Amino acid sequence: MNDWRNSMGLGAFDNIRKMQEQIQTSINPLLKQHQMIDDIVRGSGLLKVQEQITRSFSGINMMSEISKSLKQHTKFAQPTFPAIDAITSMNWQSKFAIPQTTLDAITSIDRQHEQLFGSLRTITETIQIQSSEIVQINNLNFALSSISGQMAAIAAQQKNWIILEELENVTEQALEFTETLDTSTDEEHQRQFQILLSLVLSFINKHKVLGVSALLIIDIFLRIAGIHQYYDFLQTKPELATKEEVNQIGIKQDSTVYFIQKITEQLKQAKENRITNRICKVKLKPNAKTLTLTKLPINFDVVVILIHHKWVYVSYFDPKDNLPQTGWIMKKYLNKPK
User: Fold this and answer.
1) Which residues face 316 on adjacent strands?
2) Which positions ≥6 away from 120 have C-beta within 8 Å?
3) At residue 57, does pLDDT exceed 90?
4) Looking at the domain 273-335, which fold is it?
5) What is residue 82's predicted lDDT score, i.e. its pLDDT?
6) Helix, strand or coil for residue 308?
7) At what angle do helices 243-269 and 186-207 cross, to 10 degrees?
8) What is the DSSP secondary-structure string of 158-171?
9) Fewer Cβ neighbours under 10 Å: the N or C end of the chain?
10) Can you give the residue ranges of every domain in the chain?
């Protein structure tokens, strides 16, 4: 018969259905977050910004990229299957079975990302934050999800699911490190950072170019940690902060900048930097009509976080104050270093 269910037999169909239900249960919490992707890409996220920056959509993006990668390698009897049905077909089951440990890792990564961005909601509700600053947070969230999705796609293409399980370990360590930036001593910071860096470098040595994405993820984690430090301070000490308290937040911010500089050095060694080939504008969004954040001189060094069509999301140290910033530059204005 033409019906693929009948041709496989009821027993096989029951097994597939159970597998489908298992995966559906794992990603159901993630499916609610997918709408944010379009909102950020289109730059239309300012209507409900307080809600948007609390949502992490890395998990659903990773599952989506896995589904697309698997469909490129598999011919299905019915091309109209939804993604969840497609990845639970018999052909997928025999060739691309995703271990439960990998599904658990994806869920854990999504939970970590949600934890990273989630507490910013309270801050935006109590402190008046400019729309441009919220877009910057959304840019980081979008970049984090995109990088995670790209790594998931490669794991699927290579049928190497251990990549995502090891990535989950890296992101867990990164989250723990950023959460201690407010409490640990400088010596303890250094020790924890070296442990984290060693873990990431081991990931790079094992997975080569793919491992560089782990460095980018650490960079984003640190930037979000810096945002937390600053707005947490404003939330608790809006007007009555003493000089000593101001100095303390300055020290914390300097520490975060220091670790961002260390990650930037590693990214440059991995050839992730680009050089401006003209005086160019850094934009708030990947759109020429949006706010210009600054202008960078010719031959200025930036690090590539994400490439999105004709635009590149970059990190750089502002030539005015040498503080780490991010923004969008048109791809044609950047050259690879010689």
Assistant:
1) 325
2) 53, 54, 137, 227, 228, 231
3) no
4) SH3 type barrels. (2.30.30)
5) 37
6) strand
7) 20
8) HT-THHHHHHHHHH
9) C
10) 4-269, 273-335
Copy the structure tokens of residue 103.
Answer: 């599904």
**329 bridge partner residues:** 312
Give percent helix, percent strand, percent coil of the chain, each to the nearest 5: 65, 10, 25
d(Cα 218, Cα 171) in Å, to the nearest integer?
7
CA dihedral 6, 12, 13, 19 (to 10 degrees): -160
Q: Residue 255: what are its φ and ψ, rounded to 5°?
A: -65, -45
Q: Which position has the higher pLDDT, 43 or 198? A: 198
Please give the pLDDT value at position 250. 72
Window from 215-224, 246-255, 270-279, 329-338 with minimum mean pLDDT: 246-255
pLDDT score of 310: 94
Q: How far apart are CA 136 and CA 325, in angstroms?
A: 9
What token pair was written down for 183?
């409490």
Counting other chains too, the contacts that 301-304 makes at CB distance below 8 Å and 24 or more residues apart are: 301/268, 301/273, 301/274, 301/275, 301/337, 302/273, 302/274, 302/275, 302/276, 302/329, 302/334, 303/219, 303/264, 303/267, 303/268, 303/272, 303/273, 303/274, 304/272, 304/273, 304/274, 304/334
Q: At what angle do helices 58-73 and 10-31 cross, to 10 degrees?
A: 140
